[in-house]
Amino acid sequence: MGKTMKYRTTLNKFGLCFQEMKRLNQLVRNEASSEQIKTMIFEENILQQKSFDMQKRIWKEMQIRLTRMDESLSLLIANESTQSAKALVLYNILQVDLLFLDFMRAIYLDKVVTFHQEITKSETARFIEIQIQKDEKAKKWSATTVQKLGATYLRILVEAGMLNQKFQIQRVILSPETEKYLREQGFRPAAEVILGEML
Fold it and tell me: d(Cα 15, Cα 90) in Å, to the nearest integer?
């Protein structure tokens, strides 16, 4: 799985996209073909985007996320409580975005297991600045891109219920089924983040 992961800035444009992922996941579960889904996105605007360009971008991103979703994960996202489903959508993102996964392990998970209370904007931006020096392509990102990415990471965690509005860490209460999936079938580096513990 890690071989195809890379540092990306696409989260700046899309964030968690919980409702969009729920909607597309349900269409896939209802056996809608890729062509049918594209028609619904581009002609019926089911994702409620303002421009064709944004429809195209979000469809491309959602396809990447959907390819990492096994049947069990898909079923859980469709049927679990909003809190568990949001945590699973976040888990899904962690399977495709290496920099976000690195951040979540080095900053979020470390703080959870050491009982720290909050994550700051400055430490988030600093972490990204340091990490991208290891990647030739990412090294060229502008300071504005890095700043936006840091803000997006924190916003996603608020949306997912893992931080409150003051960026203080909150433990998410997962359903027994979600917890069982993450422990037994999950991609371990991402599962540990969502569970808030080292497996």
Answer: 10
160/154 Cα distance (integer angstroms): 10
How far apart, in Å, are the Cα atoms of 38 and each of 13, 62, 138? 20, 11, 31
pTM of the model: 0.93
The tokens of 132 are what?
A: 């991208």
Which position has the token pair 């080292």? 198
pLDDT in tens, 62-107: 999 999 999 999 999 999 999 999 999 999 999 999 999 999 999 9
Q: Are 21 and 87 in contact (CB under 8 A)?
A: no
Give the separation between CA 72 and CA 5, rounded to whole angstroms: 22
Q: For residues 144 and 9, is the Cβ–Cβ distance under 8 A?
A: no
* Residue 187 DSSP SS3: coil
